[in-house]
């Protein structure tokens, strides 16, 4: 029975991870320019953030969810500003002439931290997890330690599997990408990140002002 919760968690983790938003664009960019391992580590950061949200929802850790949701305006503003910075830097920086493999510790840690923090700045994901876990009959006081732990482990595994497939799938073709395509990928991903940041800031400010009216 516990294994069933693990399998359900894998499905939930994959469903949460599959939509390609700014975090996905960051992972794709790191995979193309820095290599499969760096892209996978970036995906691991996103998967770890999803697991943290899953733990909060499955075990009913209301003090964490209340804190994150209470500061969601500040977190989303911080996330929007980071996306503006990352997008502008990617758009205006000259792309490399060829792809490389950057596996040094600093690059890997920076890749993990960037996607983890960016994912954390969207705490509304906790609400999605609460709804999904409630539908599965496992949240808050209804959770048992073994079943909740297996569900969260499944969420982390499912999310990581998606990033593993994505990073290694792209990695199979990255050597065939020429300088012209690298330039388009660099500027295109930068534009997506910048626009995503601008949209996130605009939506957050509008919603905040609407509450004050």
Task: Report what the structure shows.
It is a single chain. The chain has 213 residues and is mostly helical. The protein has one domain (2-212). It has helices spanning 2-17, 22-34, 36-58, 62-70, 72-92, 105-120, 125-135, 145-171, 179-212. Helix 2 packs antiparallel against helix 6 (105-120) and helix 5 (72-92) packs antiparallel against helix 9 (179-212). The longest helix has 34 residues, at 179-212. The protein is flat, with a radius of gyration of 18 Å. The N and C termini lie far apart (50 Å). 43% of the residues are buried.
- Low-pLDDT segments: none
> In total, how many domains does the architecture comprise?
1
Shape: flat
Strand content: under 5%
Would you list the SSEs in sequence order as H and E? HHHHHHHHH
Class derived from helix and strand content: mainly alpha
Give a count of the beta strands, DSSP E runs of length 2 or more.
Answer: 0
Spatial gap, N to C terminus: 50 Å
Radius of gyration: 18 Å
- Helical residues, percent: over 70%
**How does the major sheet shape up?**
none
Our count of helices gives 9
| Average of pLDDT | 79
Write the layout of secondary structure elements.
Elements: H1 2-17, H2 22-34, H3 36-58, H4 62-70, H5 72-92, H6 105-120, H7 125-135, H8 145-171, H9 179-212
Task: List the main descriptive attributes of the protein structure presented here.
single chain, mainly alpha
Q: What's the quick description here?
A:
The protein contains 9 helices and no strands.
